[in-house]
C-alpha cells in the first residue's frame, strides 16, 4: 500500500465520520427525552428505511471482507457462510418480526415480561443480551483494528490499539447524542454505500470475464492451486470429524442466532406496525440476499484475478482480498483508478464497522438501562432516575468495556468471534423467545432456566475450547485446559437452551398465567394494545 | 367468504357471569376464545410451522451434505458449475421464494382479519379504561391508537 491509498482512504473515511456526526447532532436536536425517542426513534420509520437499516446493521465488515476472503482462500467452504447468514432471515420473518413488534416495546425482555413475571425474566434476558452485544462489539472492534493495520501498511500493534479506541469513542458519541433516530440514518447511509461499492466491484469482475460465470469459476479454480476441489466443499472443514462437526455447529448457530441478536430485535420497534415490520424484513432479505450473492462473485473473482497465493501473502485470514481486488480492477497498483477504488473500498469497510458498532451499542445500552438498571433499582425503593440519562451512560459504559476487550482480543479471528456471538444468541435468546411466543404453558421458571441454560453452557464450552487454550492460535497458547473439542459451542448449547426451558416449565409449581398469555397472544397476532 | 364470517364474529360480547364487563383481561380471554381469532392464528400457524420445518430441514440437509458427502457435491453438472454450487444457489432461490410466498399469504389471508380484531379490541379496552371513550389522554393523538396498518394500506 502506498501513501496515495492511505491519504485518499483516510479522507473518505473522515468524510463519513463527519457526515455521521452531522446526522447525530441534527437528530439530537430533536426531542430525545423519552425512551420512545431514544430507543425506537419515535417508531416512525418506513418499511423501506428500516429495511435498509436492518441490512446495514447486519452486513458487517466480517461479511464484506471476511466472507469474500474465505471464498478467495477456501473456495466453496466460504460460500457456506453466506448461505447460513441469509437463510437465518426466514426464522426472523416467519416467527419473530411481526410478533415481536406487536408484543414488545424495545428489548427482548419486554416481549417476555408481557406474559411472565417481570423481574426475573428482565434480569436474565437483559444479562444475556448484554453478553451477546459485547461479544459482537468486540468482533467489530477487532475487525477495525485489522483493517487499519492493513491500510497503514504493516501490523503495528499501537496503530491497531488506537483504532479500537477511536472507533469505540466515536460510536459512543453517535449513540449518546443521536439515539435510535440518528443511528438508523447512519445505518441507511452505510447500507447504500456498501451496496453501491459492492455492486460496482461485482460489475467490474463480471466485465473482466465478459459475463461468463463459468469462465470466472474455472479461472478461480485454476489459480487457487486446488483445481476443481476449490469449487466443492471440504477444503476448510473437511479434514476430520471434529472440523466437520465444528462446521455443523457453526451452521446451526448462524441460522438460529440472527433471530436472537438484540440489535436486530430492537430494530422492529422503530416501525409503526407489525405489517411494517414484515415489510422491512422483506426489504432486508432482498438487500442482504443480493449482497451475499455479490460477495460470492467477489470472492471467486479475487481468486481468479489475484490468485489465492497473492491473497494469502497479504493476509493469512484473507481479510484483504476485496481491497486488493479493487486495486487490481481499477487498473493496478500505482494507477489512478486503482488508487481511488482501493480507497473507496477501505473507507466503506471502515464506515461499515463504525455503523454496526453504533447499532449494537444502542441495543446493549437499552438492555442495561431499560432491563437491568430499572429492575435492580426498583427493589432498592428509590425513585428511578431518568431512564434515557441512564441509557446514555450505559452506552458510554458499554463502549469502555468493548474497547478494553477489543484491545485484549486483537489476535482472535473476526469471523470466529462473530460466530460465537451468534452461538450465544441462538442458545440463550432464541429458545426463550420462541417458547414465550408459541407455548401456552411456558412459565417464568422456564424462561429463566432457558436463558441461563443456554448462556452458561455456551460461554463455559468456549472457555474450555481450543479457542482459549491448547492451540497455537489460542488466546492463551501457553496453557492447555481444553476439554471441549469444537470451536463453536452451538451444537451442544442450543439444544441445552431449549431443553432447559422445557425442564423449567414442566417442573414449575405454578402453572402458566392464562390471562397474561391470552393478552400477549392476542396482542402478538393482532397488534391490539401494541406500543 | 372467511373474511365476512370473521367480521361478524369479531364483535366482542361483554363477558357475562363472574367477570366484570369492563375487565381488560376478560376481554383478551374472550377474544382469544373467539372463532375469528382462532381463524387468524390457524392461518398463521398453518403456513408458518410447515414452512419453517421445511426450510430448516432443507438447510440442514445442505450443511450435512457439504460436510458428510463432499464427493457428491463435487460432481460437475455444467461447465464449472457442480452440484454444490447449484445447491447453494438453490438455497438463495428458496429463501427469496419463501419470503415472497409468506408476504403474499400474510397480506391476503391474515392482515384484514387481524386488523378487524385489533380495532374491536382497541375499542373495547378504551371503553374499559375510559368510560367517556372519546376523551383521549392528552398528548396521544389519533395516530397512537390507529388500527394496524392505518397509514400503509396498499
UniProtKB/TrEMBL annotation, chain A:
It holds the Pfam family SSF. One of its GO terms (biological process) is plasma membrane acetate transport. InterPro entries: Na/Glc_symporter_sf, Na/solute_symporter, Sodium:Solute_Symporter. Its main location: membrane. GO terms for molecular function: acetate transmembrane transporter activity; symporter activity. It is a multi-pass membrane protein. It is found in: Cell membrane. Keywords: Cell membrane, Membrane, Symport, Transmembrane, Transmembrane helix, Transport. The chain crosses the membrane at residues 6-27, 52-74, 80-100, 121-139, 159-177, 189-209, 247-268, 280-306, 340-369, 390-408, 414-435, 447-468. This is Cation acetate symporter. It comes from Streptomyces cinnamoneus (Streptoverticillium cinnamoneum).
